[in-house]
Write a structure and sequence with these properties.
Shape: globular
Number of strands: 3
Structural class: alpha+beta
Strand order of the largest sheet: 1-3-2
Strand content: 5-15%
Radius of gyration: 17 Å
Helix content: 25-40%
Order of helices and strands: EHHEEH
Distance between the termini: 53 Å
Largest sheet: 3 strands, antiparallel
Length: 82
Amino acid sequence: MDTEQEILYRLPEVERISGLRRSTIYRNISEGTFPRPVQLGAQSVAWKKSNLDQWIASRPVVARGRPTEDDNAPGRAHGSRA
């Protein structure tokens, strides 16, 4: 029997950890690209740390200042942002 308790994060901490805002988090949940929260009460939810850790590990790593594929798309001037 596992007696270790799961760490749970409330929305403000999830926003800080993920770098996403509330609306984006819930949109991504509905699209199946972000972990679903667990129900704590009638109007209270939290996210399992283990689920957030898995989501973070699945994200692509992008180095700062390095071009992405979008930056090299035809018709884009070097360094411009759309």
